[in-house]
């Protein structure tokens, strides 16, 4: 486990080794005073006369060692923390890089709470071994070993006595570690579940309030925090008795040395000075060993955390290659594509050709697979079989980055980061100047509502989210796409938030985004895509038909059904409007 943790430290491993060396020197300073105490006691025991200077020098040495110990300990800690926090940063970055290359399904399966826990709490746990357990553990183990060897050289019987309680302590420590590990799985899962429930509870607060589900979701929340408490206590319950045994046995080294050592002296097996030496040095052994022990309860936790993190790190990434995009054009083709979320296949043998520069609309009943097909094109998931090609190049044979450069994907609810609206739009083209961003916002018809905001385009999205309507937020996403100016545009329900007042503006913004591009649009409002070059009708995950509106109307029953529904909803709308009601 420590080897793995040190490997995470990368280039900061050397700093960790430096911290170990400094702390070792510090530990020597902690043990040396016991040697000087022995030097003061020895002549007194032997009734030898010593000068006042002899005593003063040793007392001064004890004081110097104490000061040096403090200085070295702080120095060692600052080195180890430096290495630890750089390592945590590296780990968080490599985890984020890993996540970027993972299929969305893996991330969704883990859940936001569990991933947040991994990024924040689990990685933070590695600070303990890196900043403390490894450097302090090595120093606190090495120095007692050295002391023991010295003692063994002076008097092997006394040395063995000083260590008499340690084997029992070590057994207690091992049992504690093993029993802790056996409870770790359930403890860890309970922690993950609690995290997910808390995140879900907060995210779903709106629904909870609207539907009066406070009681129900509170019960789930309460149950999860209760089970976390129970699993934590169960873990402590198995660990505490063994920790208590160890904590009782290890400081007992002097108690073994004193009676048995005195007996040895009386029997002539050893001498009084050696007894004094063993007594003094046993204090130098027990304190560091107790410090080592203080790290043990959490080691099992850290071991589990690391295995869990490695599990995510070892997840198979999306199939891609480092090759850049080299397609002939920006036409898109789906060739016999099948796809399953986990076990359930939701798209079956879809074959579809979308010529460059054309507008293709995906229509179909809810759940027919429209959004999934769009998500497959932007390579959120790997398909089960078949191929998706852009300009004749399989999207698995190019890097995700270069595929992203070819496509602007505007989802139904585009996420706005809590940075300024200007920076949110700039995500479409990070190198864009402020002027370019403003021009894109203008083209996306954002000017009017941005003027309403006190800080305009510099308003933070988190604050503005409360002030912007769904349609306005969507126009920010369209501005992002205009700025990106990718040759392929995928609009997933781009007109979902449309209202009569905004319709004109939204249409103007969409016209800007799609002008001259290969466009794939998912639309429920059939009236908005009547002039599409090609309308693809999806039904139950298969492609029922493809053609123009007129062709489909005369030949495709599934399309006729959708059209009838669209027509009757339009008539219903007109009749309500005529009745003077507000829509
Ligand atoms: N993340 C997911 N995990 C498992 N199944 C999913 C997931 N997302 C969608 N599905 C399922 O895949 C099928 C297709 O869903 P999809 O969202 O693509 O349909 P859609 O036609 O876009 O629907 P809508 O018009 O309601 O948005 C549905 O049966 C849906 O339940």
Explain what this protein looks like in three dimensions.
The protein has 583 residues and is α/β, with parallel strands linked by helices. The protein folds into two domains: 2-313, ABC transporter transmembrane region fold; 332-359 and 366-516, Rossmann fold (3-Layer(aba) Sandwich), CATH 3.40.50. It has 22 helices and ten strands. The chain has a six-stranded mixed sheet, with helices on both faces. Helix 8 (166-203) packs parallel to helix 12. The chain starts with a helix and ends in a 5-residue tail after the last helix. Residues 576-583 have low confidence and may be disordered. It binds adenosine-5'-triphosphate. Residues 108, 341, 346, 364, 366-372 line the site of adenosine-5'-triphosphate.
Features:
583 residues; ABC transporter transmembrane region fold; 66% helix; six-stranded mixed sheet; 22 helices; 10% strand; Rossmann fold; disordered C terminus; four-stranded antiparallel sheet
Can you describe this structure in just a few lines?
The chain is α/β, with parallel strands linked by helices and 583 residues long.
């Amino acid at each position: 486990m420590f080897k793995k943790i040190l490997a995470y430290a990368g280039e900061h491993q050397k700093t960790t080794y430096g911290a170990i060396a400094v702390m070792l020197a510090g530990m020597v300073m902690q043990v040396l005073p016991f040697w000087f105490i022995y030097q003061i006691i020895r002549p007194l025991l032997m009734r030898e006369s010593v000068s006042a200077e002899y005593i003063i020098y040793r007392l001064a040495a004890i004081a110097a060692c104490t000061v040096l110990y403090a200085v070295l300990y702080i120095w060692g800690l600052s080195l180890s923390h430096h290495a630890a926090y750089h390592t945590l940063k590296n780990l968080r970055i490599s985890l984020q890089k890993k996540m970027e290359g993972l299929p969305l399904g893996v991330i969704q399966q883990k859940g936001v709470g569990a991933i947040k826990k991994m990024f924040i709490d689990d990685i933070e746990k590695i600070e303990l071994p890196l900043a403390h357990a490894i450097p302090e553990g090595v120093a606190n183990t090495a120095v007692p070993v050295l002391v023991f060897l010295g003692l063994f050289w002076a008097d092997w019987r006394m040395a063995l006595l000083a260590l008499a309680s340690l084997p029992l302590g070590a057994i207690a420590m091992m049992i504690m570690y093993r029993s802790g590990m056996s409870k770790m799985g359930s403890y860890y899962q309970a922690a993950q579940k609690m995290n997910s429930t808390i995140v879900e509870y907060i995210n779903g607060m709106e629904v909870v309030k609207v539907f009066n589900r406070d009681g129900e979701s509170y019960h789930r929340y309460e149950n999860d925090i209760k089970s976390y408490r129970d699993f934590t206590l169960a873990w402590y319950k198995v660990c505490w008795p063994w920790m208590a045994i160890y904590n009782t046995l290890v400081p007992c080294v002097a108690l073994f040395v004193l009676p048995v050592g005195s007996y040895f002296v009386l029997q002539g097996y050893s001498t009084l000075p050696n007894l004094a030496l063993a007594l003094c040095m046993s204090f130098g052994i027990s304190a560091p060993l107790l410090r080592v022990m203080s790290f043990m309860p959490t080691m099992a936790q850290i071991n589990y955390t690391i295995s869990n993190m490695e599990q995510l790190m070892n997840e198979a990434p999306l199939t891609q290659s480092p090759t850049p995009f080299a397609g002939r054009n920006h036409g898109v083709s789906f060739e016999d594509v099948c796809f399953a979320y986990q076990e359930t296949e939701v798209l079956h043998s879809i074959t579809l050709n979308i010529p460059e520069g054309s507008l293709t609309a995906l229509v179909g009943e809810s759940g027919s697979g429209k959004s999934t097909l769009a998500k497959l094109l932007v390579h959120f998931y790997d398909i089960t079989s078949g191929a998706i090609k852009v300009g004749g190049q399989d999207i698995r044979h190019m890097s995700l980055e270069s595929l992203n450069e070819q496509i602007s994907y505007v989802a139904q609810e585009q996420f706005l980061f809590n940075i300024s609206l200007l920076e949110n739009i700039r995500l479409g083209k990070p190198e864009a100047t402020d002027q370019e961003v403003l021009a894109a916002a203008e083209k996306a018809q954002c000017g009017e509502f941005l003027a309403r905001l006190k800080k305009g385009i510099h308003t933070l999205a988190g604050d503005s989210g409360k002030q912007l309507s769904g349609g306005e937020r969507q126009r920010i996403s369209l501005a992002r796409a205009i700025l990106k100016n990718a040759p392929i545009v995928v609009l997933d329900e781009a007109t979902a938030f449309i209202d009569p007042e905004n319709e004109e503006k939204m249409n103007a913004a969409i016209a800007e985004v799609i002008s001259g591009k290969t466009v794939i649009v998912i639309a429920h409002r059939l009236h908005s895509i009547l002039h599409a070059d090609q309308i693809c009708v999806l039904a139950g995950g298969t492609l029922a038909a493809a053609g123009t509106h007129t062709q489909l109307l005369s030949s495709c029953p599934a399309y006729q059904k959708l059209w009838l529904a669209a027509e009757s909803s339009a008539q219903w709308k007109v009749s309500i409007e005529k009745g003077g009601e507000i829509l």
